[in-house]
Amino acid sequence: MSYDRAALEAELIHDEGEKLKVYRCTANKRTIGVGRNLDDVGISKAETAALGITVASVCKEGVTRPQSRALLGNDIDACERQLDAKLPWWRKLCDVRQRVLLNMCFNLGIGRRPDPVKNIKGAGLLQFVNTLANMERGNFAAAAAAMRASLWARQVGARAERLALMMEKGTA
């Protein structure tokens, strides 16, 4: 099943905001557009070639709305690739639940699974081991409950509640 990309873009713009000038995000990283982290992600060579921007030019002049939306599209594409690589079952979910996972991946990054044997803490979306297992099994009520009980939910508030409700009900 394929998700409604326009709906996802609108949700991300609502959740992240869109700023055409560089600002500092809550993690004190230089950010532009719809949550593009310039310090960790930057501007790729392909984006420089296609959009005529670099980190230096963006920091000095900002971006246009079309450039911002192109960066957003590239970031969504990156999230899709990460989900395909780490959680290939995500494509079997309904449209709305696919958007929830993409939104969470966009917000948290894909990260890594915790490994108690190696004493590695989880990070990003992959730290949601029980939540993801419930999603994969189709136990969406349990997945939504775990989303609501997370530190992430306390940090992002209404965004997490909306996404948990979407996960639980399968509707936007």
Question: Your description of this structure?
Answer:
The chain has 172 residues and is mainly α. The protein has helices at 5-16, 45-51, 55-61, 65-86, 95-108, 129-137, 140-148, 151-156, 158-169; strands at 19-24, 30-33, 36-37. Strand 2 (30-33) and strand 3 (36-37) form a beta hairpin.
| Side-by-side strand order of the widest sheet | 1-2-3
C-alpha end-to-end distance: 16 Å
Helix content: 55-70%
Summed up, the helix count is 9
Give the overall shape: globular
> How many strand units?
3
Largest sheet geometry: 3 strands, antiparallel
Succession of helices and strands: HEEEHHHHHHHH
- DSSP strand (E) fraction? 5-15%
Helix/strand/pairing class, anyone?
mainly alpha
Mean pLDDT across the residues is: 94
Gyration radius (Cα, Å) is 16 Å
In short:
With 172 residues, this protein is mainly α.
Helices and strands in order, then pairings?
Elements: H1 5-16, E1 19-24, E2 30-33, E3 36-37, H2 45-51, H3 55-61, H4 65-86, H5 95-108, H6 129-137, H7 140-148, H8 151-156, H9 158-169
Antiparallel strand pairs: 1-2, 2-3
Keywords, separated by commas or semicolons:
globular; mainly alpha
